[in-house]
Fold this protein.
Amino acid sequence: MSGVADMEDINFREASLNDKFILLEFEQEVLQAERPYNSAIKSADAFYYDMDDLLTSKNTLLLVAETKERIIGSGYAQIRSSKQSLIHETHSYIGFMYVAPEYRGQGVNKRILERLVQWSTNQGISDFYLDVYSENQTAIRAYQKAGFVQSMIEMKLNVSKS
């Protein structure tokens, strides 16, 4: 199946419970892509998301991109409480940004992100956060292109003998 889609042929909509199976497959694709950046990700039975919560929470918009009845991308915005030290009480956390490999580089991710930001701003949110592995330069460049700036670096230490 060809991966070149006319952007007018791509529909963006809120995900439904009927989409859960393909979204769980996308989640495994995300995990597989991120394992090279984090050796602590389990090789089996690993999950990032509570998919039922993402699909039903009033504070979350989980979007899918589809073309010709096939879901090709996803992303969510979730309104969360901010740290007490920050001037904003709530923010929108962006996650589960995924586009099927054959559709990458065609602006699908950008259009999902734009819709998530728009939904969040309609909810009164003006601050956005997301996590990306420091070695994932492709993703970092894409988010910087969308206006995100690097903020905090998470550091880790493992002292096990194994």
About this structure: The mean pLDDT is 93.
